[in-house]
Sequence to fold (249 residues):
Amino acid sequence: MIKINTEKLNLFYGDFHALIDVNLKIHKNKITSFIGPSGCGKSTLLRCFNRMNDLIDDVKIYGKVEVNKQNIYKKVDLIQLRRKVGMVFQRPNPFPLSIYENCIYGPKVHSLYQKKNHDDIVFKSLEAVNLWDEVKDKLFSNAMLLSAEQKQRLCIARLLAINAEILLMDEPCSTLDPIATQKIEELLMKLKRTVTVVIVTHNMQQASRISDQTGFFLLGEMIEFDDTLTIFTNPKNNKTQDYIEGKFG
Fold:
């Protein structure tokens, strides 16, 4: 099943053409990685999927972006879109509240559950990101006291608590050490059973380890998009091959 579909997607920041005729299909319950040099449009594309680029002045977008077969650049409820399509940023950004309050903040805002169900939401969301056993005795401690890797897992738990279907992850491991990165990668491999993951990464080893599909971007264009094994072992485009071999970027 196709979860996200784009057709001739173009985006401009003022006169700068940041995305050029991007066509791709992202499948449900898969991990899709975007790789390419800095400034090539990967994060910009990610933000198109929940319309976060709308918050930037002088942005113009043309073409089609469909989530669950709905064109999200026509009439759409942005609050509901961003509940279903959540973003995890480069630096973990938990709210300066308790771990417990972080988990129930979204459900309270969206009125998803009655108060009597809050304990269950907290348990299920923290358990889903393998965090429950680590924090169950300090749920009412400030989330800012957690390690960077625990904060990142908490941010993911916040999205699961509001039943997000798609996780957009913008270099979520770039500030983490190798051990913490491994934990996040193992978590994503587990989560793809129930959600769809799209990740921007500069770590090509990470892309090759965890993703099912990979797209290579260069200067705003998607040069190649295929299953990950093909991209890394038998790419069709010489530019993809050169990038993977470290000849530029």
Observations:
- The first strand starts at residue 2 and ends at 13.
- Residues 2-93+164-244 form a domain with the Rossmann fold fold (CATH 3.40.50.300).
- The two ends are 33 Å apart (CA to CA).
